[in-house]
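QA checklist item 7 of 12: single-chain prediction sanity check.
[x] sequence parsed
[x] length recorded as 343
[x] structure emitted
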Amino acid sequence: MENRQWLLHRRPVGMLRDGDLELAHGDQHQRALPAGHIRVRNLLFLYAPTMRNWMSSRGASLHMIIPVGAPVQAMAASRVIESHHPAFPVGSRIVSMGSWSEFDIIDGASAPRLIDEGVTAIEALGPFGLNALTAYFGLMRVGRPSPGETLVVSGAAGSTGSVAAQLGRIAGCRVIGIAGGAEKCSWLRDECRIADVIDYRSDDVSAALKSLCPTGTDIFFDNVGGAILQAAVDNMAKFGRIILCGQIAGYNSEEEDLPAFKNIMRVIYGSVRIQGFLFGDYRDEVPAAMADLIAWRRSGEIVTREDIRTGFETLPMHFNALFEGTNRGTLLGLVDDDAYSAR
């Protein structure tokens, strides 16, 4: 038995390129297992845009930095094959922060989440995973929507944005989704039941928001940043809320001081609240959030789609799809068919 892993060979400049990562052998499959730890076989990885931040040299943003020569970090769904922790017996399945490695060692104190029987690993990283939970807490706890309010979501056809938009619909908001391309906009209208959609590739976003929201936007859920965030700031209503979830427009830049937005007086005179957040801020509320998400998904109130790419040796080649906009739904890297098992 051997263990392959992907290491950060050099820090990317712009998009991930050949040579930035290196396929190597690791000893996670045979290294002595410390007390309180578990050894897992990884089944599935979540591709997340913020992983690009972790590969950068920027160190002032409070996010972790992957050292050069260390394994690439990622959320993973795994099967426990050896355990020194009573909460995670051999044979159980978990979701945790791991690495692009076929086998891994996880500290039980890092709070891995057990995957319930009846839920596949694909579901655990997809419709009930990090992105869906991020959408839930961002909108429901930070945005605090009320019926009749107007919610605008950028990256609305993405893994996080599509859930946030549908949660807004469930909460009784008028929802406007911003997405790129006719196919994504049609999916939002036809499958997610988001009536108003702006195609940023063909529409002037600021002008479209002015037309659709003449009195302003109450809540803006931002996954993108850049020019779209600027358009939202320019069109916020009095006492509006801007939820900063992601800034994918700047993840491939190595600049320390990325531009945010202008017209700060609009924020001040509009009494607009801007708040960032992380999923981990609400970790204690995950069971209740999961119950809601599962119920809405099973009833059809929320629809999702997963874009599954297969093969451990090809993990890096699919990463840039997140920034090219070519993925359709939650981008997942499948490395073991056990990910389809619901037990």
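[x] summary fact logged: Residues 130-143 form the longest helix (14 residues).
[ ] second reviewer sign-off
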